[in-house]
Design brief:
By secondary structure, this protein is an alpha+beta fold. The protein is built from eight helices and seven strands; from the N terminus they run αααααβαββαββαββ.
């Protein structure tokens, strides 16, 4: 529209004004036209002078709208008569032909006002439609990208879930066979026993990785059902250390919990997975024989739980990235892992309305701390013991 009517594109610079302000601008435009035409009235005939006023009407109609343009048309006819038509500086009409001139000038000015104002409205409507079209296009583009991303995530989750299910069955059989070989009588030779132990340990490690893949697929697909219950934190920590005792056999785990730690609302199975992943991560990056620490601290509305280990700690530039999918602290490390454990921890903790972060304490090593809301645990009412009434028999 701007290319077809280039003269209309200039109204965009004018800020919106009140109607009375636009009327004042229209009167000012007529005054400017009079000042420009006065030095030229001896060199121009009346028809050309009238064209100057009509040009002013067109510009006002484009810039200021219909009503100011009508005022400009009326004032232009009056100013043309007063200043440029003999007798000058008087509204007296000396010849009837001037009445025809004034009438035609007014009619032409009003027609120009109507047409120009209509073109201005069309230009505004075209601009508005263009903006709406661009907005709809952007929305459609975003929606399309979102649909593609969702489809890609669903496909990846489905593949991970299918592979995890198919791999866990032979892994379970492999572990059972290795365990059976270690229990044979007479026992295997030391060399064979060492190989069987390695097979069993590696199958357990691979099973842990597959479990992480399966749980991440479920979490991303939204198919994980939470069973939150009010329960003590020390129980899930104890269950996690027992479940992971083989991986922790070369480390000492010290648990320090406040005596007044209340019950917390969480899914025990998922929280057990959090502690298993954090302990596995801590054990892998700690020297053999070192001590792993699990601590808890009460805050005003949350409880802070930290799993800390000695060693090199996390890379300082990756403290936030370590919780991303398939992200490892040191990508060139020879320690086995695919970078899923901490991602699963973050997904589970955030599903419990908490947050998780990694840090490197000043005394060395690394810590992963997460927060869980305290909430209002239920009041456990204890039943009073029935009073036993002792009957004493008195004999005289």
């Amino acid at each position: 529209m701007k290319d077809v009517f280039p003269a209309l594109s200039g109204f965009a610079w004018l800020p919106p004004k009140a109607l009375w302000q636009r009327h004042l601008l229209a009167l000012a435009a007529v005054a400017v036209t009079i000042l420009l035409a006065m030095p030229l009235h001896n060199h121009l005939d009346l028809a050309n002078t009238a064209m100057l006023f009509l040009l002013t009407v067109v510009l006002v109609a484009v810039k200021l709208g219909r009503r100011p343009a009508i005022l400009t048309a009326l004032c232009s006819v009056a100013a043309f008569n007063f200043f440029f038509v003999p007798p000058h500086y008087s509204f007296t009409v000396s010849h009837i032909q001037y009445l025809v001139t004034f009438t035609v000038m007014l009619v032409v000015a009003l027609i120009i006002t109507h047409l120009t104002a209509g073109l201005r409205k069309q230009a505004e409507d075209a601009t508005s439609r263009e903006q709406q079209t661009m907005s709809l296009y952007q929305l459609e583009k975003v929606a399309q990208e979102t649909r593609l991303q969702i489809a890609s995530e669903r496909l990846r989750s489905s593949i991970l879930s299918a592979l995890s299910h198919d791999i866990r069955t032979p892994l379970t059989s492999l572990y059972s066979l290795a365990e059976s070989l270690s229990l044979l009588r007479p026992p295997l030779s030391p060399q064979a026993q060492e190989l069987v132990t390695a097979i069993r340990d590696q199958s357990l490690h691979l099973n842990s990785m597959v479990s992480n893949l399966l749980e991440m697929a479920r979490l991303q697909a939204g198919g994980m059902k939470f069973r939150k219950e009010w329960q003590p934190l020390e129980e899930v920590i104890g269950a996690s250390t027992k479940l992971f005792r083989l991986a922790l056999q070369h480390h000492r785990v010290v648990v320090s919990l406040p005596a007044d730690l209340p019950l917390l609302e969480f899914d025990a199975t998922l929280m057990e997975r959090v502690f298993c992943n954090l302990l596995e991560n801590a054990a892998k990056y700690s020297p053999i024989g070192s001590t792993l620490q699990i601590t808890a601290k009460l805050l005003p509305t949350q409880v802070e739980i930290c799993v800390c280990n000695p060693g090199e700690g996390f890379p300082a530039d990756k403290l936030n990235q370590v919780f991303e999918l398939f992200e490892r602290g040191n990508s060139e490390s020879n320690i086995p892992g695919v970078g899923l454990g901490l991602s699963i921890c973050r997904a589970i903790i955030e599903a419990h309305d908490g947050d998780i972060s990694a840090s490197n304490p000043t005394h060395g090593g690394g810590c992963v701390c997460f927060h869980l809301p305290l909430g209002i645990p239920p009041i456990i009412e204890t039943e009073p013991f029935p009073q036993q009434v002792m009957a004493h028999e008195h004999t005289n």
